[in-house]
Amino acid sequence: MTAINASLDTHAMGSTTTTSFVESANVPGSNFPLQNLPFCVYRPCSSGVPFRIGVGIGSLLLDLRQAARIGLLQGLSAEQIEACQHSQLNSLFNLGRASMVALREHLTALLRSDSMDIETVKPLLMEQSQVEFDVPFAIGDYTDFFASVNHATNVGKMYRPDTPLLPNFKTQPLAYHGRASSVVMSGDTVVRPRGNYRDGHGGELKFGPTNRLDFEVEIGVYIGRGNPRNTSIALDEAEDHIAGVCVVNDWSARDIQSWETQPLGPFLGKNFATTVSPWVVTLDALEPYRQPAVSEAQGEAALSDYLRSPRNQVKGGLAIQIETYLQTPAMREVGAPREMITAARFDRDSFWTVGQMVAHHTVNGCNLRTGDLLASGTLSGPTERTEGCLLELTRGGTVPLTLSNGESRRFLEDGDEVTITAFCALETGERIGFGESTGRVLASTPNNLGKEQS
Amino acid sequence: MTAINASLDTHAMGSTTTTSFVESANVPGSNFPLQNLPFCVYRPCSSGVPFRIGVGIGSLLLDLRQAARIGLLQGLSAEQIEACQHSQLNSLFNLGRASMVALREHLTALLRSDSMDIETVKPLLMEQSQVEFDVPFAIGDYTDFFASVNHATNVGKMYRPDTPLLPNFKTQPLAYHGRASSVVMSGDTVVRPRGNYRDGHGGELKFGPTNRLDFEVEIGVYIGRGNPRNTSIALDEAEDHIAGVCVVNDWSARDIQSWETQPLGPFLGKNFATTVSPWVVTLDALEPYRQPAVSEAQGEAALSDYLRSPRNQVKGGLAIQIETYLQTPAMREVGAPREMITAARFDRDSFWTVGQMVAHHTVNGCNLRTGDLLASGTLSGPTERTEGCLLELTRGGTVPLTLSNGESRRFLEDGDEVTITAFCALETGERIGFGESTGRVLASTPNNLGKEQS
């Protein structure tokens, strides 16, 4: 122990109880310091073995399955130790928030600079760059909210210049059900979808690959323990039902969406792909980054009781900063880095908190299940280059977005790669990173399933 | 064999190869003749044992799990025999349509009047009245279409008297994603949901139990084998991806729905409960009840190629007759039977065929998975008492529906029980029944989950 402690005097920040023996976790700007410990499911690249549960620390991740098997989780319950050996996070998070708090405390002790188990833990660590990730939960239902006033207003203006924000917006979180089957992992490709749409404003109806492919910048939360049907989750209990946070790109085909959306909302314009980041960042890790709830500070309407609480008012918001990057084929060709095209902030740009989303979702008795994904909807800020999608950034495709290499975009072109990344940061240097949601657009390739394949 | 054949001369109809040794299957009007053989998952009432797969025959059902275990399925593949022992139908139907055709042929031979295995099969038969059913598939995603011209027109009139039917309606099947978690089995109760809504037309916004609880009469299909993401299912292959048909009641809270629905469609107004019937009736059983597709006969627009085929045009429709019954608490009190309040017909009242729904759903590369539920949307006919929901039957609640006992309904009241049943019938007496979707409305009971429960 003495030798280990001595070596830690060189750590960039913090004491031996707030730093990790994994040096990359202590570097200023690290996404995965000891205070984060986000969960994922992964396997070594190209190994083809079953996915297993991991926890991020610095540039590495800890193999929870192996940790469970060699007795490193002793002291936790048999249920917890068993669930750590699954290929998805559902069983683990279904044990409830108190269970996850205990697990994170246990993992913190294992990974701290003054850990008593450093030599035992080290062989269970793997470089994140050497693994591939899977969608961390079996997602039962995916719900997409519409939580940003700026987004709702910017898009509303295109249809209703006089009343861009509908009267229901500030009375309750609006949402629709998205497609769970096509929620895919960061890195999965996105094939340009085909569909029916009007070619140009009021033009002829045609069928073909979308001409208005877009991204949508969103924050998502996974449900931890759910609720039985015909019960509701109160606002002050809502966060106990949230497993953690991820970054979401809800790809959209604006022309297909526009033609189909009345009267029942988006369908084929959205359900071809939704890309999530690999990591589940717990709310416990985000505790230092709390902010007041916008709805309670700025809402004009008197909210229904189930959407209000003193706790939510003071600290319902999460100060998550979100950056979106574009890399075009031309950039890749010359080795140019991706270019940041927009940046938003969750606590500022979402009218509703994650707690309010959960409370609203269940107020009618709807049951949530472990692993359900609730996304915020497009997060747009109030100023230029804070809009969360090209539809807004280019004013409906009328004002092209100019890139630094001279290229421009109205909507996404084949080969474009969109990366959304997020972090929380304090002026004192503390930081929690969320990792990335990235996806590259492939050209549309008609691929009907033939009899031989079905 | 001789003795058995002799006893069959008394059968009401058919020869020994088209009748069953289960006498109730041969009675005129039976829902479950030998030609049906619908699938379900069930267990003996109050037994608490795991659900198992069954096949309906007359008033009985055959225990497929036990049939597999005692060797009665010999001749089928090991995969089929294994999947017959599961607690849900997903693995079995994931084997594909050809596999299901072979299984049904095998079961037909077992259950025929001239079966060689009557004495072995008999102990595996159980009265349907002695069992409880579960939702037959693990439903990954539930999609609700909007396929009835009459429904779209009737409801559209309430909002847009001049243009009730939107211009996109006849160009492609419209749909939205519903909630999979709250798809429940026939017989499960429906608690009146709470939510925000305007009290009366343009009245003040309030929170409380819905005042406009409604049913929606729908036909659903479960997906058999799915398709990988980024592939499409061609119209002429679509039915090979359909496991079978069920009856659906998509309960709706019209006031909650009305307040939330713009701009993203229904959410809390629908996702508290969707009640399905226990049985999965295969398309093979429905072959004699084929009808032309309405969209190809009556459509004005030139449909995109992926929505047209000669086969669909001639026989894409399914002549399923649907009857909806209401039983009020007052009727129950005096032992009065339920009263039929409306009747529709799927082939006539759905503009789109089930094949077109599948083709459209996947034309953008969206992946369907085994067990996904696609429902038709409310099926309304062109005349009085063929409308598929109270919103239409009572003209938005303005003209109460009068019942034969003198009661009336604008919307559903606590204690009301709604039963939807369906069948196909030929003039020659052949008939296929679908069973029932039934649910009783319970009073709203605020039931927030407390910490101790979560």
Describe, in plain words, how this protein is organized in 3D.
Chain A is of the alpha+beta class and 454 residues long. Chain A is 21% helix and 26% strand. Chain A is built from 15 helices and 27 strands. A seven-stranded mixed β-sheet of chain A has the order 7-6-22-13-15-17-8, covered by helices on one side. Chain A has a five-stranded antiparallel β-sheet with strand order 4-3-2-1-5. In chain A, a hairpin with a 6-residue loop joins strand 10 and strand 11. Chain A is globular. The N and C termini of chain A lie far apart (61 Å). In chain A, 54% of the residues are buried. Strand 27 of chain A pairs parallel with strand 14 of chain B.
Write down the overall mean pLDDT of chain A.
94
User: Cα distance, first to last residue of chain A?
Assistant: 61 Å
| Oligomeric grouping of the chains | homodimer
* CA-atom Rg of chain A in angstroms: 22 Å
The unreliable regions of chain A are 1-13, 450-454
Major sheet summary line of chain A: 7 strands, mixed
Biggest contact: A-B, 78 and 77 residues
Assign a percent range to the helix content of chain A.
10-25%
Question: What topology, given as strand order, has the largest sheet of chain A?
Answer: 7-6-22-13-15-17-8
The number of helical elements of chain A comes to 15
Strand content of chain A is 25-35%
Strand tally of chain A, please? Answer: 27
Structural class designation of chain A: alpha+beta
